[in-house]
Predict the 3D structure of the following.
Amino acid sequence: MATPRPSELRITDPRALRALAHPARQRLITELFSGEVLTATEAARLCGLTPSAMSYHLRALEKWGIVERDESADGRERPWRATADGITITPEAHRGAGTATSRLSIHTWFSDLEGDLERLAEAVGDGEDHGMTSRGRVWLTDAEEREMRDRIIEVVREYRGRTRHEHPEGARAWNVYALVLPAEPADG
């Protein structure tokens, strides 16, 4: 039986941040940090790569403690899993990587957002009442901002661990984006 994973992996090293920048690695992280356990061949199929290219990406992520090998059911397969339930990239990792690398990482991290928004617009146009977008501004102290982040993360954690193979009947996959972003400076 696999060892229980910690709830959060905190990326503090800027070099690990650079390892996350590849789009295939982002897709892989999305799948594995959603609870999936995949072989290199399965992951390659999802990402449109060869199994050998995917093995390279998996080993690069393993080097930074982002993924790890899981136990094999038959001894032949070599499945991989996330090392935690969630992943957080700390401000010090972004600072240490520099503005250009940080910007690239953030844009790569959210590269699927535009496609997800398009699917939401189509679904709503087709009459669905699911999904949401929300935007607003709140004035928070630094401590309140940290508390709000923690509360948002806690709500998402309640539903973690469900996979494409193990979920309640009628469930479908949803991508959840939680952004708490600084606003432009304003007088006040």
Observations:
- The CA atoms of residues 47 and 171 lie 23 Å apart.
- The radius of gyration is 18 Å.
- Helices lie at 14-19, 23-32, 40-47, 51-63, 91-97, 99-109, 113-125, 142-157.
- The chain has a mean pLDDT of 88.
